[in-house]
Amino acid sequence: MTEGQNSNMCDCFKSHSWCKKISAVVFAFIIAFIVVGMFNHDGRGDKNANQDTIVVSGKGELTVKPDIAELSFSVTNENLDVSKASDAVNTKIAAIVAKLKADGVAEADIKTTGYSIDPQYNYVNDTVPANMPYYSSGRQVLAGYNVTDSIDVKIRDLSKAGAIVTDLGTLGATNMSGLTFTEDKYDDLVIQARDQAIADARDQAEKLAKALGVKLGKIVGYSEGSGPIYYGMGVANSAPMAMSKSIDAVLPTGTNKITSNVSVTYELK
To answer: In which domain, by residue range, is 138 found?
Structure first.
């Protein structure tokens, strides 16, 4: 390149700012390309993509004795006069709630879950006039109103569960269902079972790594599933129950199992 050409190049960079900008962009691109190449060359750029891993499963299980009982019941009455049906239901519910409180059930553990008023109809056939072949031969006639109040109860003193179930029957509960025995601090027990499962997974991973002649790295994946297995007693009856107060219901509580299953993925060193 001649001295005149060099002079023209210098004049270009001095007089045209866009020339300077293009040169800066090209220079930055070259530097970035070199840095990325060095990053990938020492293995850090694609470490996770090529890192060997193992996946292990762990299980935790607790066998616990229930400390609370939960059940649902309802009171139903049907009458042509909706106010009379409502009054009958409300009177029975008030007596039942008073008895539950007398049996030691806290007001906070008695909860209304539904209150419904449903009209009931009968279908009546009419005589079809001879000159009206397409006349409707029947019609609905109001038969009354069905009023239902549904309640959930939590019983914390299990020694009274049998007496309470019997009282519900003698006081006019028309439907009782869903009796289960569970744990008041269930969430805490689930955490305990999960901790056992994680420890079990770690133990399995260490044994496997030793057998393979490798070392465990960090955890790169985790999933879990847990749930209770109930061994309880259910009570269901859609009609009013006549139960002798001299003999309370016998309700063995049994035990519950709370399990947790986890899957853990470890990197290998």
So the answer is: 64-187+229-262
Sheet holding 175-182, edge to edge: 110-125, 138-155, 68-79, 175-182
Helix or strand (DSSP H, E) at 16: none
pTM recorded for the entire structure: 0.62
* Residue 241 φ then ψ, to 5°: -105, 130
Q: What is the pLDDT of residue 256?
A: 92
96 occurs within a structural domain? yes
Q: Write down the residue that tokens 């008695």 correspond to.
A: 110
C-alpha 101: how far from chain center: 30
CATH number at residue 156: 3.30.70.2970
Q: What is the 3-state secondary structure (H, E, C) of 78-141?
A: EECCHHHHHHHHHHHHHHHHHHHHHCCCCHHHEEEEEEEEEEEEEEEECCCCCCCCCCCCEEEE
Question: Looking at the structure, do residues 128 and 40 belong to the same domain, yes or no?
Answer: no
From CA 76, how far away is CA 192, in angstroms rounded?
Answer: 43
CA R_g for the chain = 38
Task: Write the single-letter amino acid at 65.
Answer: K
State whether residue 31 is helix, strand or coil.
helix
Interval 91-150: pLDDT, tens: 999 999 999 999 999 999 999 999 999 999 988 776 666 666 665 566 788 889 999 999
Whether residues 29 and 146 share a domain: the answer is no
Provide the token pair at 21: 């900008």
Q: How far apart are CA 234 and CA 219, in angstroms?
A: 43
Average pLDDT over residues 220-233: 65
